[in-house]
Design brief:
Length: 407
């Protein structure tokens, strides 16, 4: 589990670290700020597409070697970034690293579930995602610190080393039985995975994921402006405020995993309701510094408390196929992009820098409604035992899948 978490930490660093390095990178490679921004947006778009494409391409292969190969791809991508003589090579390195992102978390979630008893499934997923949440806390400050002292290339060298250590750890510590064959192998397995998407519960869960993420990150994308232009914080305060937010992510991830193992659908409904309420209060109280600190922490808590439950829910609804978990990662990235676009739209329309918070609250409220429909349609299968319940049964019957269990 710790080996998987280390892999998630390295991948998370790659995603977040670039934000603090853009000025250095654009100056060093002689490109505009807008062009440098594609190192962020290009990564996100590759994750959204690659999560499904790479998972489909590896359908039916033994999952432990696939995980090892994905981390190796991650190492190659960051090595390209560290050595990049031109902007084109740098962008290529970001794309190569992003190709492993969604599939790693998708297959890694399945492997993590096999390592623990069924009643601890969501907590296992949460532990794997702890690496990602810690990276969110440390990523930007880590990149800025290393980049300022030794240059931006040193940051990518450090991430390359972390990736190499994670590769060795996963190869050595993850047992072979936990990363068994995808299902039946070959093309038939891919057909089974696609067949699982006939489940209404799969689509409802993916939609709720996209809307929950979209609301949170639509607001998060403009928090620096909210803090400085509305609450009156200085620009130097933004870094520690984002650390407060990241700490909330860690707390929410752990709490969400525990809650989902107790009663998954209730945990998801409470988390989404809490997120919508937090965003609304944040919009109303954005001019208060004290309230902003508390609410940005709660934004992280409620925002990430949905992650373990959403992933185990969509996997159970789809019968445990890796493509569903990867699709959940894609859905979250699509939500991020749409939420950020909607937030920028209201700012451009002149509604102010607190407006994305209200837009985010509205998006999450719609997601809460979708989740309510999904919970009612699951026939009471809200207890997240990892064995499927009413929700998982539909997916298993449709996909014809039998999950690999510990002997």
């Amino acid at each position: 589990m710790l080996a998987l978490a280390l892999g998630g930490f390295g991948i998370g660093l790659t995603e977040f670290v670039i934000a603090g390095l853009l000025p250095q990178v654009s100056g060093s490679l002689n490109v505009s700020t807008a062009a440098a921004g594609w190192l962020i947006s290009g990564y996100a778009l590759t994750v959204a597409v690659g999560a499904i494409a790479v998972t489909a391409a590896t359908a039916g292969l033994p999952q432990k070697p696939v995980l090892v190969g994905l981390v190796a791809l991650f190492v190659v991508g960051n090595l390209l970034s560290a050595l990049a003589p031109t902007y084109g090579v740098m962008l290529l390195g970001r794309i190569v690293a992003a190709l492993c992102h969604g599939t790693f978390f998708g297959i890694g979630s399945l492997v993590a579930r096999r390592l623990v008893p069924p009643e601890r499934a969501s907590r296992a997923v949460a532990l794997m995602f702890t690496g990602l949440t810690v990276a969110n806390v440390l990523g930007v400050p880590f990149g800025a610190l290393v980049g300022e002292r030794w240059g931006w290339r040193a940051t990518f060298w450090a991430i390359t080393v972390i990736g190499a250590v994670a590769l060795i750890a996963i190869a050595a510590l993850v047992p072979a039985w936990a990363g068994g064959m995808g299902e039946t192998g070959g093309r038939a397995d891919l057909r089974s995975q696609l067949h699982a998407f006939r489940s209404t519960q799969v689509w409802l869960t993916l939609t709720a994921t996209a809307l929950g993420y979209g609301g949170m990150f639509g607001a998060f994308s403009y928090l620096a402006y909210t803090f400085t232009r509305v609450a009156g914080f200085s620009t130097t305060d933004v870094a520690w405020l984002l650390v407060v937010y990241g700490t909330g992510l860690v707390v929410g991830n752990i709490a969400g995993g525990r809650g989902a193992d107790h009663n998954r659908d209730v945990t998801l409904l409470v988390s989404l309701a809490g997120l919508a309420t937090t965003l609304t209060l944040f919009g109303l109280l954005a001019s208060s510094r004290g309230a902003s600190v508390v609410l940005v922490f709660l934004l992280g808590v409620f925002g990430f408390a949905t992650v373990p439950g959403m992933i185990t829910r969509v996997m159970d609804a789809a019968g445990g196929v890796p493509l569903a978990a990867s699709a959940n990662v894609s859905a979250s990235n699509v939500g991020n992009a749409v939420g950020a676009w909607a937030g920028g739209l209201v700012i451009s329309a002149g509604f102010g820098y607190a407006a994305p918070l209200f837009v985010g609250a509205g998006i999450v409220a719609v997601g809460l409604g979708v989740m309510g429909v999904a919970a009612r349609g699951s026939g009471g299968g809200g207890r997240g035992t990892g064995t499927g319940g009413a929700t998982g049964g539909e997916g298993r019957r449709s996909a014809g899948v039998v999950e690999t269990k510990q002997p």
